[in-house]
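Worked example 2:
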Amino acid sequence: MTLPAILLPVLVTGCAGQPAVFDVVATVDPEIATVVHVTWTTTEPEADRVVFGSTDAYGLATPPESAETTRHEATLLGVTADTDVHYSVVGATESSVDAVVHTDPLPSYLPEFEVVSPMENAEMGPYLLTSTITLTADESTIQLVTLAGEPVWYWRPDVGVVSVRPLVDGTGVYFIAEHTDDRSASTLTSVTWDGDVSELALPYAHHDAIENPGGGWVTLVTVFQDVDGERVAGDDIVEVSEDGSTRVVWDAFENLVVEQNAGWDAGTVDGAADWTHANGITYDSSDDSYVVSLYFTESVVKVDRLSGETAWQLGGTSSDFTFADGEAFGPQHAPQVTGGGLWLFDNSSYSRGSRLVEYSLDVASSEASLTWAWVTPDMDWTPVLGDVQRFDDGAVLSSWGLAGQVRAVSAEGDEAGELQLEQGQTVGQVSVVAGFYPGG
């Protein structure tokens, strides 16, 4: 329940010729218990900001307004639920007195993270962005949590979301909203921190999308083709402009050999055999290409962005590489390009557990070498989702899908933190968010 707005009448009377701050109002957002909106008025035009925090020492601040005005508004972001938030308006010459607004409790539907062991790496924060999924109910929530698992922002789509990413401009998040009962209704959806929603219709888009450096997005779209009298589902890589127009970069049917695999039995898409099941995409700026994970073919492909040509295929029955010591992967999720190599979440098998893996690729000799691998001490396994990302200091952050875990691993391969969802919840891809305010 949202508490009444706090209205502070004339707070400061400036000296002659100086603006005064008055009519300061703070309200908790009706949809997001951790978001507070503040409005105020000044007698003279100026560009103000709000300082805020858990005490009157503050510690957080909104960016200064971009233009001088007498009617002001700001949104306080990065606070926790059901807590006092101290705040004060800071003007060019005067500030309002300290005031307090109490945020609302979290909604009961929001899954909770338990801190199994604290995150130790400062690069993995201060916030982690992920989705949490109740597979039996096909419901998702999007959460931004501290390294201690406390939510500071959340959103509840009415459909499934397996991958959510922060917008490059720092104003919110974006994701593919999948309607599993009507996949033609999928959308590319963005939500700002203060709850503004934008949608682009993208029929049969699924799993993952990334922003392109030149603007717009690129995503994965299911396409269908009859193969030997059977309807088969494959994938396209599709670029999407901000106006919703699209360009097909690559088509699996035109570039790969269709072969029966576990997807024929493990799942179907609108009654079709699930052949490629693309589940993750990343951009390689070194050669302007996309790298895509194809789950059921147990392979990763690299595609030239402009020509749409397949540069190589790693893994699967038609791999362009051989694996040194036979250390292949698959099925897999979440490719991440590194200098001269590739990181993957190797879902692998129940008998040996899922793995975080790094491969070095020698294109000239067509050889792939496993250079790093990590499994949990209990050899946890998830056939669903999972991702991995490496930081400059060599540490690794990953999510473990069906196991409901977010894990950190040091550069030396030691456990460096774990968050655990409550039983029955699946965790989606995890990203680090440095802050809420662009340029802050």
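The two ends are 31 Å apart (CA to CA). The helical segments are 252-255, 263-266.
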